[in-house]
Amino acid sequence: MLSTYKYPKFEYRRPPELAEQRDGRYPVVIVGAGPVGVAAAIDLAIQGTPVVLLDNDDTVSIGSRGVCYAKRALEIMDRLGCAEEMVQKGVSWNVGRTFFREQEVFNFNLCPEPDHHRPGMINLQQYYLEEYLVRRGQSLPNIDLRWKNNVIAVTDHGDRVSLRVETPDGAYSLDTDWLIVADGARSPIRHMMGLDIEGKIFMDRFLIADVVMKADYPTERWFWFDPPFHPNQSVLLHRQADNVWRIDFQLGWNVDPEEEKKPEKVIPRIKAMLGDEREFELEWVSVYTFQCRRMHEFRHGRLLFTGDAAHQVSPFGARGANSGIQDTDNLVWKLKLVMDGKAPATLLDTYSEERVAAADENLMNSTRSTDFITPKSATSKTFRNAVLGLAKDYPFARALVNSGRLSVPSFLTESRLNTPDSEVFAGNMVPGAPMDDAPVETASGENWLLQVAGNRFQLLYCMSDAVDIDAATAAAFAALADAPVPVEVIVIAERGRAPGGLKTLIDSRGRIRERYDLKPGTTYLMRPDQHVAARWRAFDAARVRAALARATCNA
């Protein structure tokens, strides 16, 4: 039990297969009601696809577990309709500080630019995040959330997947066209199917201590190398909601994990850090060993692996849950098009291709962070400490300091779904890039670009004033909206409104023009997951149709 949080108990209901003595057949089944599984269910439901979500428990995760949720994950949660509650409850931060012994040697700002809706990070205990996601899922009519439903067997028949599910009332069977596997790092389904996961387990251990205390430390990430209160090791400090503070202590490999979790071992470490006068209570304690591993492929026929079931990274950098949420963001729109017969099943191969590339980037950064934080030889440690000693005064050394390269959105620049540039653009909004946010004015008032974008293909078209859209262009826009894969046209203007009732965003502060290098006539094709598919300096309906075909594997 936690002193700051009461665990919800979700109601088990007798499944209809048992109540009506029949087998079930469903378009999509998801296994695992953690953040990734519930996010996938919500995404499918808001796009009109019914989904069954199975979980072997009846509450949220025990302990705070994941802490940091990055700007991109929050933007995805906005698209799913549940970010605001998370941001209001969580602790927002942008600044991180790194110390060597007692001296600050490095700091960073995750969001140095103005005019972004969401902060670089929020800190929020995972049980809150899961509770808010479940609540959002329960509000949607297309989600059948089944608690205490444990999958005990899976069979892939090629044209469908069969599951055997154990419940308090006995076992039942169901079939699904598509199975999304989000059952965590140990993934029973991955083991049932005999599928691979390869990588590296690091020979080090860290103690997590969640501590309830009142402290006026700034809401920043603080990381120490070799501090006087924990010599020759590293320590990380984060503030969470409810005056809960996360402290990570490096322990080394040659320790007894069960012994280190005992209060008589934990409390002296915390007192050495905070001082004897600071009052605190232990909320949750755990010891972990981290690993960097992934499956070779994330799609196996009609089984689609996501989150920790597909890839695992060390916690430094907050790349676990954030990456898993981006998995579902990438997957669901593709699955929806395939299920609707508007794209071939090969589109789902690009889910694996794009997210394997993203996982490799995360694994590389996570491995580098781990090697810097926990050097495995005297030479590596001498190099690491030399870098830290120089970092305060020399920029070249600062660039080498690595206390956990924090989660950033994946730029899918090598994706075969992109249409390469044929003209010159400045800035970061290259094909494959996740969209940058910006403030806008709509007919109903002030808003944000990413609150308007997503869930469908969209065309951003920059006009100089309200008269530069001629009849032929307006007709071409209307044809795109009525295409088999519809494309919604959004006009970006400095002032005024586009003719013909076209959706118009007023870029009154000029941030969209700046971040997307817009000029009159500039056109962007955006994917449903808010990634750039293509861009041109002038609108050409034929080029847009070709790029759309490429982005949906219909070329």
Structural notes for this entry:
- The strands form six sheets. Strands 1, 2, 8, 9, 10, 11, 19 and 20 form an eight-stranded mixed sheet that branches.
- The protein is built from 16 helices and 28 strands.
- The protein is an alpha+beta fold.
- It is globular.
- Helix 2 runs parallel beside helix 5, helix 2 (35-46) runs parallel beside helix 9 (320-339) and helix 9 (320-339) packs antiparallel against helix 10.
- Among the domains are: 16-90 and 122-196 and 294-366, 3-Layer(bba) Sandwich (FAD/NAD(P)-binding domain), CATH 3.50.50.60; 439-551, Glutaredoxin, CATH 3.40.30.120.
Report the radius of gyration as a whole number of Å.
25 Å
Fraction of residues in helices?
Answer: 25-40%
Level-2 CATH architecture of the domain at 16-90 and 122-196 and 294-366: 3-Layer(bba) Sandwich
CATH topology category name of the domain at 16-90 and 122-196 and 294-366: FAD/NAD(P)-binding domain
The shape is globular
Strand-residue proportion: 25-35%
- CATH superfamily membership of the domain at 16-90 and 122-196 and 294-366, which one? FAD/NAD(P)-binding domain
Instruction: Enumerate the spans where pLDDT stays under 50 for 5 or more consecutive residues.
Output: none
Organism: Aromatoleum diolicum
InterPro entries: FAD-bd (IPR002938), FAD/NAD-bd_sf (IPR036188), RIFMO-like (IPR050641)
Cofactor: FAD
Domain FAD-binding: 26-365
